[in-house]
Amino acid sequence: MGLTTLKDLYIDELKDLYNAEGQLLKALPKMAKAATDPKLKESFETHLTQTEGHVSRLTEIFDALGEKPTGKVCKAMQGLVAEGAETIDEKATPEVKDAGLIAAAQRVEHYEMAGYGCVRAYAEALGETNALKLLNETYGEEQKADALLTKIAESVVNPKANEKKPAGVA
Question: Which backbone phi and psi does 86 adopt, to 5 degrees?
């Protein structure tokens, strides 16, 4: 059948986000475990709880639309999660690995903000006021998570990673 209306696209994009959030529910505990900086570890754990809320809000939107949230795989998130997994497996000093984890997490946040930004615009155009409220809430949490990661990177992790010198270097 394909996508023939804005509502079709809206539902398709919501399914993509639902799958993306589901992938994150599996990836965030691994990122938290790999993080060594306590603030970074805590930010991943907090975002895991928020992500559970994102899934719940999306489920509420799907229920209101009379649609099922399944049936789409977010290939972009698969790639972003795979890159995050590479960072976890990378041989690096703890400080440098933390910096890499932040970079991987921020790529995810920026992808999510783009996706939620689009579906918010569609919800508004379609007159889906309750969905718009829920999507705005999630979008705001994604922005705050990104800002927190920037703060942790700039104030703690990056300076520590920059101080670390390879063995044998004076």
Answer: -60, -40
Instruction: Convert the pLDDT of each residue in 126-136 to its tens digit.
Output: 999 999 999 99
For residue 162 the two structure tokens come to 């920059």
Does 146 or 170 have the greater pLDDT score? 146
* b (16+ CB within 10 A) / e for 84-100: beebbeeebeebbbbbb
Return the closest-CA partner of residue 54 out of 11, 8, 23.
Answer: 23
Tokens representing 165? 């010198």
End-to-end CA distance of the chain: 66
Question: What is the rounded CA–CA span in Å between residue 40 and residue 44?
Answer: 6
User: Could you state, in order of their start, the residue ranges of all structural domains in the chain?
Assistant: 6-162
CATH class of 6-162: mainly alpha
Q: List the Cα angle 104/109/115 in 5-degree steps.
A: 130
Is residue 164 over pLDDT 60? Answer: no
Cα-based angle 133, 134, 140 (whole degrees, multiple of 5): 90
If you average pLDDT over residues 77-93, what whole number do you get? 96
Q: Is 143 a residue whose pLDDT tops 90?
A: yes
The pLDDT value given to residue 105: 98
Q: Which residues contact 90 (CB under 8 A, 6 or more apart)?
A: 97, 100
